[in-house]
Write a structure and sequence with these properties.
It is a single chain. By secondary structure, this protein is α/β, with parallel strands linked by helices. The chain folds into two domains: 5-29 and 287-380, Aspartate Aminotransferase, domain 1 (Alpha-Beta Complex); 50-284, Aspartate Aminotransferase, domain 2, CATH 3.40.640. The chain is built from 13 helices and twelve strands. The protein has a seven-stranded mixed beta sheet, sandwiched between helices. A three-stranded antiparallel beta sheet has the order 9-12-11, with helices on one face. Bound molecules: pyridoxal-5'-phosphate. Pyridoxal-5'-phosphate (PLP) binds at residues 81-83, 109, 111, 157, 161, 186, 188-189, 209, 221.
């Protein structure tokens, strides 16, 4: 199954003027998503308030996320950001009662670590699984040493936003469950780059957002709750959109939904819902298996191009050990990002490494242009 690249690239006007390799930061805007924004604006222009249509669109977004995560839509909660979902999740734990420890990692995006550290005030103990000397692997033994009968939750990023490292989650999840702990996965840097069956992964909670590889926009986060109607967790954060009956409008009762919706709170971000539902739709049309194939092809070209020129890969080269993000060691990464920008190549940097993150809409020509520009700026790359 391959992608009709010339056709798909027509969908993304940005690709005509820029070599866009920064989808780990923000996805490119498609015509389809632009039209969805327009649809929302048109309703505002012509009807003022269109709650029925807007709530319908939020439902469509939830349904699309269910298709994307291969799970029932009822197991998906929506929020304004991944952080919002994680804060709701944190509020559903009571670290003062019984298990008190949250195990997190060196590969965390800052927000998850910060949210877990904030739980110290509520009596939580926070432990961190450290990398080995390579800096790009966290051995299973490090989790084995930390997870025990005090562990409430193990919080794992699937792909690290700094270096693209993909964790082998299956043995860690099995270990955590054997020792009675729940597992949360931050899937933001993988969702939309490959098929992801939330039920098969086995984690209890999986969160992400829609503005990167899902092609949507800022303002929507989501969280999958495994078997949500049987899961005992009920957050303290709540609101009318979290109620079993949103229309109840009863100030004397708080009856959170039995589905994942109980992790929600107030009025959803309707304009973002239009854009995000459309972005996921586009991705589902292309097919996640085809997206994964193209990501593997492009990251393979990047790995090969770096190695053959004697530069240093930070990301492990093996295809099963990285996401759609390759980090390359630089001597001055911010200067390199600026130099590439001058050639209309959009990439980013972290930890003084260049981050190159292709998506299915990139082609071999984009990678060739990247390497032409890197060769021009070879002094800014580590050898
Ligand atoms: C792995 C990962 N987690 C979380 C976030 C941030 O999530 P939010 O801003 O939606 O809370 C990002 C954003 O870059 C990310 O890459």
């Amino acid at each position: 199954m391959s992608i009709d690249l010339p056709k798909i690239r027509q969908e993304f006007p940005l690709l005509r003027t820029r070599t866009y390799l920064n989808s780990c930061s923000y996805g490119a805007l498609s015509r389809h998503v632009e039209a969805a924004f327009e649809k929302y604006l048109d309703l505002r222009r012509t009807h003022g308030s269109s709650w029925e249509a807007w709530i319908g669109e939020v439902k469509r977004l939830r349904a699309n996320l269910g298709r994307l995560l291969e799970c029932p839509a009822g197991d998906v909660s929506l929020s304004a950001s991944l952080s919002d979902s994680v804060n709701a999740l944190a509020s559903s734990f009571d670290p003062g009662q019984g298990r008190d420890t949250i195990v997190t990692t060196d590969f965390d995006f800052p927000t998850t670590s910060q949210i877990w550290l904030a739980q110290r005030r509520r009596g939580a103990r926070i432990l961190r699984a450290r990398t080995d000397e390579s800096g790009v692997a966290i051995p299973l033994a490090h989790f084995e040493a930390l997870i025990d009968d005090r562990t409430l939750l193990v919080s794992l990023p699937y792909v690290c936003y700094r270096n693209g490292v993909k964790l082998d989650l299956e043995p860690i999840i099995r270990l955590a469950h054997e020792r009675g702990a729940s597992v949360f996965v931050d899937a933001y840097q993988i969702v939309g780059t490959a098929p992801l069956s939330a039920p098969d992964l086995g984690a209890d909670f999986i969160a992400g957002g829609c503005l990167k590889y899902l092609l949507g926009t800022a303002g929507i986060g989501f969280m999958y709750i495994r078997n949500s109607t049987q899961n005992a967790r009920v957050p303290v954060t709540t609101g009318w959109f979290a109620q079993a009956d949103i229309d109840a409008m009863d100030i004397h009762r708080n009856e959170p939904s039995s589905t994942a919706r109980r992790f929600e709170s107030g009025t959803p971000n309707v304009s973002a819902a239009y854009a995000c539902a459309a972005g996921i739709e586009l991705l589902l049309d292309v097919g996640l298996a085809a997206v994964r194939e193209q990501a593997a092809h492009l990251t393979g070209l990047i790995v090969e191009g770096v190695r053959s020129r004697g530069w240093q890969l930070v990301t492990p080269a093996a295809p099963d050990r990285h996401g759609s993000l390759i980090a390359i060691a630089a001597t001055d990464a911010p200067a390199l990002v600026r130099a590439l920008a001058a050639d209309d190549i959009v990439v980013s940097d972290r930890d003084n490494n260049l981050r190159v993150s292709p998506h299915f809409y990139n082609d071999d020509g984009d990678i060739a242009r990247l390497f032409d520009a890197l060769e021009k700026n070879g002094r800014l790359l580590a050898t």
